[in-house]
Design brief:
With 550 residues, the chain is of the alpha/beta class. The protein is built from 22 helices and 19 strands. Strands 3-2-1-4-5-6-7-14 form an 8-stranded mixed beta sheet, sandwiched between helices. It has a 6-stranded parallel beta sheet with strand order 10-9-8-11-12-13. The chain has a 5-stranded parallel beta sheet with strand order 17-16-15-18-19. Helix 3 links the parallel strand 1 and strand 2. Helix 20 crosses helix 21 and helix 21 crosses helix 22. The longest helix is centred in the last third of the chain and has 19 residues.
Length: 550
């Protein structure tokens, strides 16, 4: 009996020693509670540390090169195995006065807990909680074609950490009203988010307005006078137990046919996922080249005469160039199976084909400019050459400018009471049947209802989530609680050993207060309802995020 009870302690001690994200949760909690904000520090994290591309990089360049921000300490996040690449990348861009921290390291946890300004285009880890003094600017990454949030019909509940990050952000910036509307509605932010929505140009798109940069990069790559075709296919996940992906065979066939059919004045620059790149031998080609690793993606995209992609939202950013866009959708039916899209891809005004010979013929006979004016007006209304400068002035310097639109989240508050209901496991049993009956009889126009469940429950019961009334929002609980070591021991004693006293209850109270803040930031629901009644931890959580509990 004793060994059974002690096993969780041994297991968690091993995880603390060997698992960086697990250990980081405790380190971050320690620094969050003990360290003060560093006023002149800004942290940049792009694609969760996998690279340093997209909007965070261009915001970083503005902060680095603009003398207004000369006293700011710049911190960039990377994976441990990408550190050398990042050092070379920053050196190539003449930006060496930078602090690099590795994801989940001690230095990372300190920086995340203390930097005054935080910039991300995806999410920070599940243990992140924004301090009230921090400014968190989430740029997201482009204009979506594929559905997001609750519109992802095959995984509608897998949004916990994204939704949570949005709730914590002080600024959510979007390049157009189309993205703004979808993100706000599909992540159900209208009554949860309390910061500012920012509508302005997409930082990565500034480069499309620089003919000087285009000329310089062409010269650096010795591509003057060449027709440059950029091919950026969307990566498909590798199938289980398959060494190679079907996509690689299609890409390889496409590249060999391009090499054979295109003329000698055409160069194809290919941007692949690192798994796909490792499977293709670019030394076999003379007209086909991989993206040079020292350049940011949009620096190369800016020199393209033609863009070829399939389902990537990069097509919308490239509208700024007024140059031809082609979609090579060789697996459209298979790719779309089970996926949700905001509109039919066939309705886009680009040349589309699933035949490589038709694609090559189109490349050969395509030259010059091509405008998609109505789509460009919809997707790129704020893009201009100094969008990043204007956004930084609005968000970092807190200055007003007519070219950046700031919308307080309070504009969308309907001032109804907010009710949160914990739904249980969502399994097909009597409790869930009764809960569904309750939902069918709610007056969804009288109150704002939020259904709370653990994200794992939603993964197993997709139909439940998809069948919710669109007027009912939901919050998937994702990630572990932030705890001090003594609180972890307290949790073990209380929930595993059923030991309770004043000290344990006081520590539990603090721990669940922190958990409520991690999940909902400052949001306080008017009523919290524990419908199933079985989950003990929810009993402790609801009073910390609700004024009244049932």
């Amino acid at each position: 009996f004793f060994m059974q009870k002690i096993k969780p302690i041994v297991r968690n001690l091993k995880k603390y020693r060997k698992n960086m994200p697990y250990k980081a949760r405790f380190l971050y909690t320690k620094y969050y509670n003990t360290l003060s904000i560093e006023e002149n520090t800004i942290l940049f994290e792009s694609f969760q540390g996998a690279n340093f591309f997209g909007a965070p990089f261009y915001i970083f360049l503005e902060i680095y090169n603009n003398p207004i921000y000369k006293n700011m300490k710049k911190i960039v996040v990377t994976y441990p195995n990408k550190r050398k690449w990042l050092e070379n990348y920053l050196k190539f861009h003449n930006t060496t006065d930078v602090t690099i921290v590795e994801k989940h390291s001690r230095e990372y946890c300190k920086a995340l807990a203390t930097a005054k300004y935080l910039v991300s285009n995806v999410t920070f880890p599940t243990y992140f909680m924004r301090k009230k003094e921090q400014v968190y600017w989430n740029t997201w990454h482009g204009t979506p074609l594929k559905a997001l949030g609750r519109s992802i019909r095959n995984h509608p509940g897998n949004i916990g950490n994204v939704q949570r990050n949005f709730i914590h952000a002080t600024h959510l910036s979007y390049a157009n009203e189309y993205t703004f509307e979808h993100m706000r509605q599909d992540y159900m932010l209208e009554q949860l988010y309390q910061g500012d929505y920012i509508l302005g140009g997409y930082p990565a798109n500034d480069i499309f307005f620089s003919e000087k940069t285009e000329k310089e990069v062409r010269e650096q790559l010795n591509l003057q006078g060449k027709k440059v075709v950029v091919y950026m296919p969307t990566w498909r996940d590798v199938l289980p137990n398959k060494k190679h992906n079907k996509q690689i065979y299609y890409i390889m066939q496409a590249l060999y046919e391009m090499e054979r059919l295109l003329d000698n004045d055409t160069v194809v620059l290919v941007k692949l996922h690192h798994l796909g790149k490792s499977m293709i031998h670019f030394s076999d080609f003379t007209k086909i080249q991989a993206f040079p690793s020292e350049y940011e993606t949009y620096e190369i995209l800016n020199i393209a005469n033609i863009l070829i992609t399939d389902y990537s939202s990069v097509m919308f950013d490239f509208l700024n160039k007024d140059r031809p866009i082609m979609l090579y959708t060789y697996d459209e039916q298979e790719y779309m199976n089970g996926r949700s899209m905001y509109f039919e891809i066939k309705n886009l005004p680009f040349f589309q084909t699933n035949n490589i010979y038709e694609l090559c013929n189109q490349i050969i006979h395509t030259n010059g400019k091509q405008e998609y004016s109505s789509l460009k007006k919809m997707m790129c209304p704020y893009d201009q050459k100094n969008s990043t400068k204007l956004l930084c002035e609005a968000i970092i310097l807190n200055e007003n400018t007519s070219k950046v639109k700031t919308i307080p989240a309070s504009k969308y508050f309907n001032h109804k009471k907010n009710v949160i209901i914990f739904a249980g496991t969502l399994m097909k049993n009597g409790i869930t049947t009764a809960f569904n009956s309750l939902l069918c009889n709610l007056d969804v126009d009288k109150y704002n209802y939020y259904i709370m469940f653990f994200q794992k429950a939603a993964e197993k019961n997709v139909d439940f989530v998809n069948q919710l009334d669109s007027k009912i929002s939901y919050i998937p609980v994702f990630g572990n609680k932030n705890m001090k070591k003594r609180e972890a021991l307290c949790q073990y004693l209380y929930f595993r050993m059923n030991i309770s006293n004043k000290i344990i209850l006081k520590l539990l109270d603090h721990m669940f207060k922190t958990e409520a803040y991690r999940l909902f930031h400052d949001m306080k629901f008017d009523v919290g309802i524990h419908f199933s009644g079985y989950e003990r931890k929810i009993i402790h959580l609801l009073p910390q995020c609700s004024k009244k509990v049932i």
